[in-house]
Design a protein that fits this description.
heterodimer, A: mainly alpha, three-stranded antiparallel β-sheet, B: mainly alpha, 9 helices, globular
Chain lengths: 359, 190
């Protein structure tokens, strides 16, 4: 079966092979075309061949999960060496942040959530991550709960940003979309936006004012040599509304540019660390980039955020993440909770969980 | 204008090695991300034990900065593969187990690289001509797998061979292809 994007040369593997692809191959989760792509790598790379042979042994993949505990600690200084351009972007960010005009209130979340540890989500980490194959990606399913699938067709979608009237949670309107509220929290009416058909909590639900983000051209810091240059750099910084920023970030998500989207959201979380929209979509991006540890943290925060907009879908993707991390017991428990909630993902969770072992 | 993200594939292994040599120990983390799971797999292949494989990987990475100080490494990937295999060899020898793997596998590794280089440099016409000179089984497997993009499993199903046999024919076929291509090149040389 020919692959969709066959390499030009029949003996040359196509693109890099990610760890997730290799694991999916070993687990037999790939289509024949995807298998062949991996096998072309195996044929061309003795290290990969040896590794695949070893990892195919019983219990080998399970042992990988604990291997990550031994990872050498990363130093933040690395970003200055790795890629000059990337460091320039980071520098530009750090430099323009103080330029926010005084007197402009910094929006604060109405309810505090655990802060995202920004120092942990480095640009280099995103840069080094690898996009997962299409079959392994999450968040793009047409029937996903965070996608708009049941709105009246009369609503013009071309407008890009559509503000829907405040409503009872969309999950509770349709029988199949009634999410479980396992934690007993009530779901208040939330004003939602759909950007590229993806659900976003209207920022007015999260912040007391319409938030803005201060941005700058990435190239500015490259010529940042003296005070005058610094001043010029500051003048070139611009402010963008939260919604417009999110619109662009989700455009990247919609076209599977998860690195770009995650980088946008990383930037947003530097200014709004408790943003539930950012937590959820950054979690999906992290998963799709194979950054499962990161995905677990972000999706957990989205699922337990005081603004209950993504509870069920975040819990579902969090459970899938646990599965990817090899934490089978925790994943099974999570699927059990989702299944018991009788909500949108209940059937899928029950199928993942398998038969109930209880009598 | 939003900050735009660079979508480069990131630093090469060799750049990371340079960084590590330059004292940027955090480059070790990126090398770990790229290789730890593969080297663990190599460990599993030879040692057949998850804990011992993990130990070997961890110890290798702990020793990596010092190793890179002592050795000139042009290409990190085959080098670290060989280092890991040798560590497994030493471990097996310490355990009193037979371990005649290192030299043979190093030779295989070099042969593989040589084959792949030769095959990728050849034009499709040259390849087609060379493929005609293979044995029936090798020709069939090379055609089904490399030219028609069938997986091992599909190739095995269509030929009635086992997957191991398919892989063997592919490996031997590529080796022979390289030899045939070299012979053709010699014949065409004035």
């Amino acid at each position: 079966m020919p692959t969709k994007n066959a390499p030009e040369h029949p003996f040359a593997p196509e693109g890099p092979l990610t760890r997730a692809e290799l694991e999916a191959y070993l687990a037999g989760r790939l289509s024949p075309a995807e298998q062949q792509r991996v096998e072309l790598h195996l044929e061309a790379d003795p290290l990969l061949r040896d590794a695949a042979e070893g990892l195919a042994q019983t219990g080998a993949v399970a042992g990988l999960a604990s291997l990550r505990e031994h990872r050498p600690i990363r130093s933040r200084a690395w970003r200055w060496w790795v890629a000059g351009a990337l460091a320039v972007a980071v520098t530009a960010l750090l430099l323009v942040l103080p330029t926010k005009p005084e007197g402009v209130p910094v929006p604060q979340p109405e309810a505090a959530a655990p802060r995202i540890e920004q120092s942990e989500l480095a640009a280099t980490e995103i840069e080094a991550a690898q996009e997962q194959p299409e079959s392994l990606r999450i968040g793009h399913e047409p029937t996903a709960l965070h996608r708009r699938i049941a709105d009246p067709p009369a609503v013009a979608r071309d407008a890009g940003i559509e503000t829907l009237p405040a409503r009872a949670p969309v999950m509770e309107r349709a029988p199949e979309a009634s999410g479980p509220r396992g934690n007993g929290r009530s779901r208040p009416s939330l004003r939602l936006l759909f950007l590229h058909d993806l659900k976003v909590v209207d920022p007015c639900e999260l912040y007391t004012t319409d938030p803005t983000l201060t941005l700058a051209d990435a190239h500015v810091a490259a010529r940042f040599a003296d005070q005058r240059a610094q001043q010029q750099a500051r003048q070139e910084s611009i402010t963008l509304s939260y919604t417009a920023f999110f619109h662009e970030a989700l455009a990247r998500f919609a076209r599977n540019d998860h690195k770009g989207c995650l980088d946008d959201l990383r930037f947003l979380m530097e200014q709004y660390p408790d943003d539930v929209n950012a937590h959820f979509y950054a979690g999906l991006c992290s998963y799709n980039l194979g950054l499962y540890g990161r995905a677990r943290t972000l999706l957990h925060r989205a699922a337990t955020h005081p603004v209950p907009a993504f509870d069920e879908e975040a819990a579902w993707y969090h459970a899938l993440t646990l599965e990817q991390l090899g934490e089978s017991a925790a994943a099974q428990e999570a699927f059990g909770r989702i299944s018991a909630g009788q909500g949108f993902y209940a059937d899928r969770a029950a199928a993942r969980r398998g038969p109930d072992p209880r009598p | 204008m939003l900050l735009r993200r660079k979508q480069s594939p990131g630093p090469s292994d060799e750049e990371l090695v340079l960084a590590l040599r330059g004292g940027h120990r955090s480059a070790l983390g990126l090398l770990w991300d790229r290789y730890a799971h593969l080297l663990y797999g190599v460990g599993m292949k030879y040692l057949k034990d998850a804990d011992r494989s993990k130990d070997e990987v961890t110890e290798l990475f702990a020793a990596l900065p010092a190793l890179l100080e002592r050795h000139s490494v042009d290409r990190f990937r085959p080098w670290v593969h060989t280092v890991m295999r040798n560590r497994c060899l030493v471990r097996l020898r310490k355990d009193g187990r037979t371990a005649r793997i290192a030299d043979d596998h190093l030779a295989d590794h070099l042969a593989d690289e040589s084959e792949e280089g030769a095959l990728r440099e050849a034009s499709l016409q040259q390849l087609e001509r060379a493929i005609a000179g293979l044995t029936d089984a090798q020709r069939t497997c090379i055609t089904l797998f490399h030219l028609q993009r069938n997986s091992y499993q599909q190739t095995a199903a269509r030929t009635g061979l086992s997957i191991e046999q398919v892989r063997s024919h592919l490996q031997n076929g590529r080796r022979n292809l390289r030899l045939i291509l070299l012979r053709h090149a010699d014949q065409e040389r004035p």
